[in-house]
Amino acid sequence: xxxxxxxxxxxxxxxxxxxxxxxxxxxxxxxxxxxxxxxxxxxxxxxxxxxxxxxxxxxxxxxxxxxxxxxxxxxxxxxxxxxxxxxxxxxxxxxxxxxxxxxxxxxxxxxxxxxxxxxxxxxxxxxxxxxxxxxxxxxxxxxxxxxxxxxxxxxxxxxxxxxxxxxxxxxxxxxxxxxxxxxxxxxxxxxxxxxxxxxxxxxxxxxxxxxxxxxxxxxxxxxxxxxxxxxxxxxxxxxxxxxxxxxxxxxxxxxxxxxxxxxxxxxxxxxxxxxxxxxxxxxxxxxxxxxxxxxxxxxxxxxxxxxxxxxxxxx
Length: 315
What we know:
Blueprint: H1 19-43, H2 50-75, H3 77-82, H4 84-105, H5 111-118, H6 121-133, H7 139-157, H8 161-166, H9 171-192, H10 199-223, H11 232-265, H12 268-284, H13 290-306
């Protein structure tokens, strides 16, 4: 690994494969790593309280990051103090809303729904970037946005118009929608807010901020009697989240992005809901329903259109 904490040319590779080929393989591995979070959210709904799960996940992730970014966090402590507002907002959104809200929603909705609803986040990112930072949106992207939003509505309403008319949404679906909106805002701010820190250092600082913000809410949750069942199973789930869904997924994505570029590496986002539905069926026994396939048939092509690079506005 490099000092930035990302995999480098010296990283081990599969015999007979060059760096580009190895990155292409990892392009299909990364979505499975990201899906781990969505599956664990469902699997631990009755074992670990949601805020505790988010706090423990990101606390463990920070400990894993500390040997890599700790020295640079100390060197950049001045920048951290100057950027404390941005770091607090990013930490609250990325580790709090996008963490605890998903785990709360997992108690009353399926892992398949979580993945498919979350798959529309790139569409919202485009809308927010256009509205607040003037990024151009093409007619093709508008068509994609329409398809994706229609797909999300189909999933949330379970293809039942009466649900939409009567606003009889599943509570879990609404929590996931809120988490998806939080992720979109987080992504836009991360992209457009300037920072004196490098990517991995800023990620470490944001993780620390998120853990600090989650701490009082974790204590509050414990005061209500909601505490984890402490055993080896609990420790295993937390370790899985920290190693795979946080640390591992980030490192693999960083490597793929460095080798293949941002454009090709973004293709993995299209695979996340598909992987998630398959894994939820294989591991959790969730049988896909017709409305899942209808929603996916709208969301996925809509995402591909919506994330197509539009023409830049003329100055």
